[in-house]
Amino acid sequence: MGTVQGHCDPAFAGVREVFERNFAEGRELGAAVAVYAGDRKVVDLWGGVADRRTGREWLPGTPCFGFSCTKAVTAAAALLLAERGAYDVDGPVTAWWPEFGAAGKDGATAAHLLSHQVGLPAFASPVSAEEAADAPALAARLAAQTPEWTPGEAHGYHALTYGWLAGEIVRRHSGRTVGAFVKDEFTRDLDMWIGSPDDVIERAARLSAGRRGAAGTPRAAGHDLLTRLAAAYVDPDSAMNRSLNNPHPGKGGFNNPVVLRAGWPSAGMLATAPAFAAFYRDLVAGRILRPDTLREAMRPRVSGPDRTLLVDSSFGLGFMRPAQTYFVPKAGRASAFGHTGAGGSIGLGDPDAGLALAYLPNLMGDQASGDLRAYRLTEAAYASLS
């Protein structure tokens, strides 16, 4: 395993200390973390092994899979189109997607799609990785499907379906895939892709399963809840299992080039940590969305028990807000937003603190959301600001 390399402003030495400790404690295989304070890149660190099979070293330009961190990027694309007047966030989905009104969904709004309230947390039938590359077909499946609750009456994490629901906003109003729209509009100069070319896939970090509990997770839950979560995760009939595991990524899991090329808009991003942090830097600075648009998107639309994840979650319009599913230090709980990813990754922005952070590891934790590695780094970043 290589040593930690890169740049760290002396004021943010605490972030480097945490990053190095994660490696020393065996919590990492390879990883990268980047932090911006305003427009100044104060942390750009990487280390370890990008591919356990070959021993390939993690380099400054190594992209890594971000799992559900992708959702925040998809949300930004949808919100940019709303800002331009393409559709009304609080208006009916049927105004621009008539077929979506089937099976009792005629009251659904775009805000319901963006805040996990529409009642379609999982596909009703199996979807292969190859089928998942056809965004119009998957959107049509969801349009015809009966919701598991009346849209707007509850919320539950739409782990994978979210991408083809929010993504349909982008596709119908721009004529482009989410990946193409994002690259054209606000990530042209960033090493970030939703739908990656083969040369990017070849140099990307390869995900590896960790020892159970190796990554750690911040927990305030009691033993009974942890038992329920573990049971739900393996129960094929639970909302959690159905939401997280369909479509199935196929051979190689999320290393599968079929998935990486397709760019699932819920969990399909490859990015370097500095590029992903720069995305949040630009969001916070008002260069992607107007500040009033971002503030309205950050406003919690739902908070409390999540029907899919069985713990408390909080969502604005596509962005997670601090909760059991998005664990941030006290200093960021009023103004932090972003999204976690299943393997332990996180993207975070904070307009009040002027902070942007991204952390991307390839040694996967065993929790659906939230990770002690990411929390420690985030905590150190906030502490460094003061």
UniProtKB/TrEMBL annotation:
<dbReference type="InterPro" id="IPR012338">
    <property type="entry name" value="Beta-lactam/transpept-like"/>
</dbReference>
<feature type="domain" description="Beta-lactamase-related">
    <location>
        <begin position="19"/>
        <end position="381"/>
    </location>
</feature>
<protein>
    <submittedName>
        <fullName>Serine hydrolase domain-containing protein</fullName>
        <ecNumber>3.1.1.103</ecNumber>
    </submittedName>
</protein>
<keyword id="KW-0378">Hydrolase</keyword>
<dbReference type="GO" id="GO:0016787">
    <property type="term" value="F:hydrolase activity"/>
</dbReference>
<dbReference type="InterPro" id="IPR001466">
    <property type="entry name" value="Beta-lactam-related"/>
</dbReference>
<dbReference type="Pfam" id="PF00144">
    <property type="entry name" value="Beta-lactamase"/>
</dbReference>
<dbReference type="InterPro" id="IPR052907">
    <property type="entry name" value="Beta-lactamase/esterase"/>
</dbReference>
